[in-house]
Amino acid sequence: MYTSDQDILNLIESQIRNVPDFPKTGIQFKDITPLLGNAETLRQTSRLLAKPFSTEEVDVVIGLESRGFLFGTQIAMELNAGFVPVRKPNKLPYHKIQATYELEYGTDMVEMHSDAIKPGDRVVIHDDLIATGGTSAAATELVEKLGGKVVGYSFIIELAFLNGRNKLLKHAPIHTLITY
Ligand code: AMP
Q: pTM to 2 decimals?
């Protein structure tokens, strides 16, 4: 059996698959499908992602499309919070707000329903992976537009060499399970 959280983190890391040159040459894709397919890592990942917020008051967990939905709802349930999806353009059906962010070439956009966050809501933003931090920073803008407060960020994987955390640290603490 796994005796410590460190043992479990090692197990989680062993279930992340590196796929070279996907979706394009030069990108090493971190594939979490083995982690999802294993009952032990599915359960333990949810538990460890929620753990840093266990003493925090959290009203809403945001999951970023689309892999942020997978554990976002689990974290929300662990924290007795609601779940809100932040999605790519033209996916959400109701009244919504938008934020744009910079890509290497051009810009991209994320959307959230305008009634999803109430003023004063305390929000955790979750995604499977932080790369440049652009998506999470845009989601932060959406939360703040509606009067919510981001109290933390949660990622399974951080690509530290991209320094994404520099975009987020001024808002709230960042919790990641595995750093590359
Ligand atoms: P960013 O906005 O740059 O922090 O990008 C984060 C989003 O891009 C997340 O939704 C990730 O799922 C995805 N992503 C970026 N780089 C990778 C990678 N190397 N492997 C898997 N997903 C990635």
A: 0.97
For ligand 1, say whether the CB of 156 is within 6 Å of any of its atoms: no
At CB < 8 A and 24+ separation, what contacts does 1-7 make? 2/44, 5/48, 5/51
List the beta bridge partners of residue 108. Answer: 101
Neighbours of 118 (CB within 10 A): 11
Beta carbon of 30 within 6 Å of any ligand 1 atom: yes
CA of 67 to the centre of ligand 1 (A): 9
Please name the residues in contact with 113: beta carbons below 8 A apart, sequence gap of 6 or more. 84, 92, 94, 95, 96
pLDDT, tens digit, 9 for 90 and up, residues 25-61? 999 999 999 999 999 999 999 999 999 999 999 999 9
Q: Is the CB of 135 under 6 A from ligand 1?
A: yes
Nearest to 49 by CA among 8, 18, 110: 8
